[in-house]
Write a structure and sequence with these properties.
single chain; mainly alpha; 6 helices
Length: 208
């Protein structure tokens, strides 16, 4: 339902040629357009649009990393509106850079095919057992010397520790994102905090 226009028609290569840059499913290799329509334009793009480029573009779109703002001009007259716009510019830019940083991990996971490390995969397969008795954890525990079993347990514990650290990092990123959402709400709720109006007042283009 997301990828339809105001008339209920699905996006096409003509109406929204960059749909691959807008879909989260692109990160899982499920492209909206298997053949990107931007590669069929005349003239053709200097560099063909690949699924990796679309995945990176999605991260930039979702994070707001490609949204630009007018840079404060030091020649603007000093005053309250100049200060307000500078504060707005600083806050919004700081939030955007964090968004790009946080979502860059999603792109890194995409490039890694969302795979666990080889050690984690091996331990998961071993713990889950399987058709191969030699890889069955329970058979291994029953037959292996105690010293070898203890060594394996230490390996499992170390991987659990790493996953817990990763989970904590993810929680910290979520908390930071929530705090930045609060920052944006403060900016939006502050009286007259419309970027265009702030800029024009700061630049002296409109008078109060």
């Amino acid at each position: 339902a997301v990828f339809i226009d105001q008339n209920g028609n699905p996006f096409t290569g003509t109406t929204v040629p960059n749909a691959n840059d807008l879909s989260y499913q692109t990160l899982f290799g499920n492209l909206f357009f298997q053949n990107d329509p931007r590669n069929n334009t005349n003239p053709k793009p200097p560099i063909p649009i690949t699924k990796d480029m679309s995945a990176l573009n999605y991260v930039l779109n979702a994070s707001g990393g490609n949204v630009t703002h007018i840079t404060p001009d030091p020649t603007w007259a000093a005053g309250i509106y100049n200060t307000k716009y500078n504060n707005y510019f600083n806050a919004i830019t700081a939030v955007q850079t964090y968004n790009v940083y946080a979502l860059s991990q999603v792109y890194a996971n995409y490039k890694n095919n969302f795979n666990l490390t080889s050690m984690q995969n091996t331990l998961m397969q071993q713990a889950a057992g399987g058709s191969d008795a030699n890889n069955n954890w329970f058979d291994f525990v029953n037959k292996a010397p105690l010293s070898v079993v203890l060594r394996q347990l230490l390996i499992y514990n170390s991987q659990i520790y790493l996953l817990l650290i990763q989970s904590l990092q993810n929680q910290n990123q979520l908390l930071t994102a929530q705090l930045m959402t609060n920052t944006l709400l403060v900016l939006l709720n502050q009286g007259g905090q419309n970027e265009d109006i702030l800029y024009k007042r700061a630049a002296g283009l409109i008078k109060v």
